[in-house]
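Long-time lurker, finally posting.

We've been working with Embryonal stem cell-specific gene 1 protein (Cebus imitator) and I want a structural starting point before designing mutants. I don't trust myself to interpret raw outputs, so I'm hoping someone here can both generate the structure tokens and explain anything notable. Sequence follows.
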Amino acid sequence: MGTLSERRTIPPWVKVPEDLKDPEVFQVQTRLLEAMFGRDGCRIPYIEQVSKAMLELKALESPGFTEVVVYGSYIYKLRAKWMLQSMAEWHRQRQERGMLKLEEAMNALELSSWMK
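Top reply, 14 upvotes:
Generated this for you. Predicted structure of Embryonal stem cell-specific gene 1 protein:
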């Protein structure tokens, strides 16, 4: 997804400072970010608007994972976190199925070339 950009504004539905305290934090596999948030995070504003939460992505020392920080009122934070974790799991499973299909196709090609 490229480099993580610094947030410049706070959405109008986030109350400052109370909604910025005690964020929900979880980690997502970096390879899933583009599938979830679009190229360069283009879907983040839409996800924030629908969930009434504010998202922040933070790079970790481990390049395999990115930290997702969710700010907002208690119920909106939990709902957004659940939604994003569900999206990550769905994309992870989808990519795994794609890899299995690719592996099966490659195995089929190897078998067919061997049988000739």
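Before you design anything, note these points.
The chain has a mean pLDDT of 86.
The two ends are 43 Å apart (CA to CA).
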